[in-house]
Amino acid sequence: MSAATPSSSHSPAAAASPANASQEVAPSLSPYDQAILDYLRARGHHDAEKAFLQEVVEGRTPDDKTKPPEEIGKDEFIRTLAVFAQKNSRPGENQLKDSGTVLQELTSMGNPSAIQNLIASIGAVGSEEVIAADPTDREEGFRELEAWVDGSLDMYRPEFRPILFPIFCHFYLDLIQKGFKDAAQKFYSTFSGSLLASHSATLHHLSTLLLPAHVQNDELAQRFMNEKYAIKMSRSGLSLLVGWLTEAFGGEAMGSGAGFVGEQGKRGRVAVMAVVNNHLSFQMTSTNPTAVSPNAWEESTGLLSSLIPQASGSTTNLTNPQAFNTGKGDLKLGPAPISEDLRTETERVIREQALLDREPVPYDIQMTRTNIPQGLVAPTEADLLPHPPTFKTIDIEREVSAVRDARKRIRLEPSALNNIDPNSSQATLQRSRALPSICAYTLHDVTEGSPCMTFSQDTSLMAAGFAESYIRIWNLKGDKLRGFRSDFQASSVKDVASLQKIREKKGSTTRKLIGHSGPVYSVAFDPICGSAAPPKYLLSGSADATVRLWSMDTLTNVVAYRGHENPVWDVKWSPMGIYFATGSRDRTARLWSTDRTTCLRIYAGHLSDVDCVQFHPNSLYLATGSSDWTARLWDVQRGTSVRVFIGHQAPVSCMAMSPDGRYLATAGEDLAINLWDLGSGKRIKKMTGHNSSIYSLSFSAESSLLVSGGADWTVRCWDVKGAGGLKTKAGENGVVEAVNRGSRNEETQGTSADLLATFPTKRTPITNVQFTPRNLCLAGGVYLSPEQR
């Protein structure tokens, strides 16, 4: 509407007579103001005409006389006039719903020629958009939808709940885009509580978008706007949903809400239907809802079209991850072979040590070689990454130590707790068979924070990275850390004794390694020595986008690997040493070799940060977890994705591979641990019980037990072989319940039946858990004082 108005110094007579005022101001009115004035006068709206003239006449300042009139668009003008007109034949229905009706009705109103000419030049526009701009419609629509889902039958509720999250996100983004900031914040605070348990990270991110420009420039928001959110649902469930949306009935229990009633309720239904029709994609299943696990409905849901890799040469986006996984064929998941020369030499050393130790039963190298499960294919030496053609003494010592560890390993059998009365005399004995011993190391007085921690396989060293850009090493056996001096001559080294003489004379049980220029997010000891000897090298990844290799002999930095463009979140060694992998904020994972300063492979495909990486035990595959809620399995040599795992509802924070090579465990910010079958790419089960972020996972040597540590100050043990599912009431008085009592989040999210035990700390978030070769569990974290948050 025109902002150009006459001067405020006018005569009272002119103001009293609209006709006179109209004649006075007519020369300075814009065509649109004049058209509105003629329309109001022709329709007999004298009060509106008087108010309009008063606004036009009195609202102009002297400076405004020289300004050109500001005009609104034709579409905006028609929206101002055409909002609602009731049909005589169908009371309550908007006659101006579509553009054709708007123009027809306005044309038949006997408007002046100026209005008629304006109407003739206006393009297609309807008034439904104006009605939909009411922010209360979305609030009313979501309230009724949530009440219907919560009140639906028990057999349908698990498959209906996943639709709440995408509809919530679209309603919030729509309100922000239309400028209803206060209404959007009220909508968020009212309805986000029920979704925070599974979508806390995403909802927190959306809550930071407060302006239309934020939505336009945010990648996640644009994915919601441009991609369809896949929902898995049964045929009967979808028919109930459609029936309720169209007729306001179907599937709900008594007292589950009044449904869409009244004019506001009807508009709320239209808002829900608009999201369902335009932004949701339903994947139909003919399976009976009662035959599907409650946790299975959320699997393979989300913005899938950009998450699943496209086949080479294909232009269509897949929405079913299982179709992609099946198309990639079988994987070689068996154990890596050992060379015949190394095997022969190892067996000779084992026999000699057995004679010296007078062992009644000689050790067998087969004790370290897992039997290949039926259906798995073992790789050949030709399939492995290039490695030195000859073995060294340390390789023999590593294999001999592995045999000794296998012989003396404490075997954990979680199945021993099945059907055991926790109050019986046998409960304590069975718990010792099923649960590991846990040794926890706590760092005190670390005000700046320590994002990462790790232990060497021989349990002699512990390393931690700190936010103040340094690394600290501890000797857990109490020995002093003394590096080699830099002022010695190479000719003076003749034997082991002379080598020890050139070490530093003084030392301590801890040393600080300085070299990074940003917080250190990951550290890893090399696995070449195994449990036979202390490690020779340490890798570290930092916010300065570099990875550094540190020598444990000199306690200095040897190499800096540069290639990532953003902070490096994780670094892991290959089980055979030599190679290592990194994950970064630049959305890529990379393969490196210690003898090259440039990367060998780049694994690109994730849509967000690669937060964690993990090698398969045979080194043929690399698993990556990302903030795009997915995990992927890559062929290390070819650099292609061979499996995609979709099931988390938040970023994937950590992962672990089972020693037998069959399973992948992933943990996300949705506080869930998913167990995947690598061969098929299917999720075996979902395990819940943590109350806060999960930082670390580790499998026992038999792959029968999984241990997790997180920000809820606990270490938790899970039964890998158990059936899973939510805990039933019959088990509430069991062993597990005794340590899980009083958790607020478990009441809302539920605890899995395969949670064997919880070991709480006083106030220590557990940043790392890992098993030793003999099944001792090591855990570590930084004590959080009550003054700290």
Structure summary, number of beta strands: 29
Strand content: 15-25%
| Shape label | elongated
Uncertain spans:
1-27, 122-128, 250-256, 730-749
Radius of gyration: 34 Å
Helix/strand/pairing class, anyone?
A: alpha+beta
Helical percentage: 25-40%
**N- and C-termini, Cα separation:** 53 Å
InterPro entries: LisH (IPR006594), TFIID_NTD2 (IPR007582), TFIID_NTD2_sf (IPR037264), WD40/YVTN_repeat-like_dom_sf (IPR015943), WD40_PAC1 (IPR020472), WD40_repeat_CS (IPR019775), WD40_repeat_dom_sf (IPR036322), WD40_rpt (IPR001680)
Family: Belongs to the WD repeat TAF5 family.
Protein name: TFIID and SAGA subunit
GO molecular function: RNA polymerase II general transcription initiation factor activity
Label this structure with key terms.
789 residues, alpha+beta, 4-stranded antiparallel beta sheet, 29 strands, 21% strand
Write the layout of secondary structure elements.
Blueprint: H1 12-16, H2 18-25, H3 31-43, H4 46-58, H5 74-81, H6 99-107, H7 113-121, H8 128-132, H9 135-150, H10 157-160, H11 164-177, H12 181-191, H13 196-207, H14 212-217, H15 219-226, E1 229-234, H16 235-247, H17 262-279, E2 280-285, H18 321-327, H19 340-357, H20 393-408, H21 427-434, E3 438-443, E4 452-455, E5 461-465, E6 470-475, H22 496-501, E7 510-514, E8 520-525, E9 537-542, E10 546-551, E11 556-562, E12 568-573, E13 579-584, E14 588-593, E15 601-604, E16 610-615, E17 621-626, E18 630-635, E19 641-646, E20 652-657, E21 663-668, E22 672-677, E23 683-688, E24 694-699, E25 705-710, E26 714-719, H23 735-740, H24 744-749, E27 755-760, E28 766-771, E29 777-782
Parallel strand pairs: 1-2, 3-29
Antiparallel strand pairs: 4-5, 5-6, 6-7, 8-9, 9-10, 10-11, 12-13, 13-14, 14-15, 16-17, 17-18, 18-19, 20-21, 21-22, 22-23, 24-25, 25-26, 26-27, 28-29
